[in-house]
Amino acid sequence: METRPTVAPPESVTWRVHLDRAMWVAGVRALMLQALHPVAMQGVWQRSDFMRDPLQRLLRIAHFVAVTTYGSPEEAERMGQRVREVHSRLEFADPATGNPYRVDEPDLLVWVHCAEVVSYLEVAARAGLPLSGDDADRYFAEQARTATYVGLEPGDVPRSVAEMRRYLAGVRPVLRATPEATQAVRFLLWPTMPERLRRLAPLRPAWFPIAALGYYCLPGWARQCYGVLPEVPGTQAATTQALRALRGALNASPNQLYNQLFDEETVRSAEAARERLAAAGYDTRGGMPRG
C-alpha cells in the first residue's frame, strides 16, 4: 500500500523547481513554446478555451503541477484520470492536411510534456535557483512519473538532459510559428480579462512584464520564429536581471498574499499536503519544506 504523504518527496529536485515562484514566468514560456508545434497548436486552437480565458488555462496547469508534485498519490491519480478522460474525448483536424487527430496522440503528449518541464527547469535556473547538472538529470527523471498521469509511460519521455537535448533537436524541424501560434502569443502578452476577473482589469498592465519575460526566456530560434517583440542588444542580459528581481520579489511575498493568485482547490490541496507532511514528521511550520 502507498504510504508516501506526497507524490514526490520534499527532498526531490521537483519540489525545489516547482515551489519556486519563477514558475509563473516558466508557465507562460511553456505555453509559448508548446504553440510552435503546428498540430499541437491546432488542438489547443480548436478544442480549448485558451483564447477566451488564457489565465484560467495557466491556473489549470498550475493546479496539475501542484497536485502531481505535493498532492497525495490518490489525488494525483484522480487528477490524471480526469485529464485522460477529457483528452480521450477530444478530436480535431489539421487544416493543412485534413488529417484527424486526438488530443491524446502520444507524440503530442510527449511534446507538451517536454515543452513544459524544460521550461520549468530552464527558467528556474536562469532566475537564480541553484541547480547542478546532476540536479537537472534528476529532475527530468522524476518528471517521467508525471507523464504517466496523462497516459504516457516513463520511457516515452526524456529522462536526462542529454535525452532532452536529443529530443528537442529531433523535433525542431517540425516546429514553426503558425498564424494561430503567433496570435496566441500576442494574446498571452496582453490577454482579454474574462468576465469573472473584470474587477482585476486595472492590474492588467502588471501582467505584461511577466508575459514578456516568458517570451524573452524562449530559445533564440523560437523568438526568431515569432518576431513579436523587438530584439535589441542587451535584451537577454536585462531579461536575466529582471527575472531574478521578479523571483526575489515573489519569493519574499507572504504566503497569504501569494496564495490569492491560485484558485481555492489548489490552496486546499496545498493545505492538505502540509497536514500529511507534518504527520509524516516533516517540519512545516515555515510553510512547505523545500528539501
Automatic annotation (TrEMBL):
InterPro entries: MPAB/Lcp_cat_dom. The lineage of its organism: Bacteria, Bacillati, Actinomycetota, Actinomycetes, Streptosporangiales. GO terms for molecular function: oxidoreductase activity. Residues 15-246 form the ER-bound oxygenase mpaB/mpaB'/Rubber oxygenase catalytic domain. It holds the Pfam family MPAB_Lcp_cat. This is DUF2236 domain-containing protein. It comes from Halostreptopolyspora alba.
